[in-house]
Amino acid sequence: MVSVLERQVIDFLGYQWAPILTNFLHIIVVILGLFGTIQFRPRYVTGYAAWLVAWMTWNVFIICFYLEVGDLSRDSDLVLTFNLSMHRSWWMENGPGCRVTPITPPPFWAPEDHRYISIAGCLMDFQFIEVAHSSLQILLA
């Protein structure tokens, strides 16, 4: 549960709406699963087991998305943000050792509400951090 809450906060910081909704649903189902286990409600436990299959499938999709398996591209705004924003993973700018340098003046094509930056010196690329988070969720499930 702590791992999912941490992931929820990171996804909120990156404005990634699909993972936010999925994490929220997972938190609700975990609470119901714990309730079903404590109260011995077989339907809740069965529902929780079915959700874990869907949760593991979601995390496999996230791993494939960030590793760009097949036609998936992590530069797509449609998949994780529902094309509502241009935000990416929070780890892209805030990963271990990353130095963010604003580029001024921004290019003419850069949206006014977004800053144009250069990122260098990261000890670990953000996609591998996201893959590690999803792998942890699969192991915990």
TrEMBL record:
Coiled-coil stretches: none
Residue intervals passing through the bilayer: 12-36, 48-67
GO BP of this protein: regulation of sodium ion transport
Principal subcellular localization: membrane
Pfam families assigned to the protein according to its UniProt record, in alphabetical order: NKAIN (PF05640)
Taxonomy, superkingdom: Eukaryota
Keyword Cell membrane (UniProt): yes
Claim: Transmembrane is one of the keywords in the record: yes
Membrane topology: Multi-pass membrane protein
Listed name of the protein: Sodium/potassium-transporting ATPase subunit beta-1-interacting protein
Lineage: Eukaryota, Metazoa, Chordata, Craniata, Vertebrata
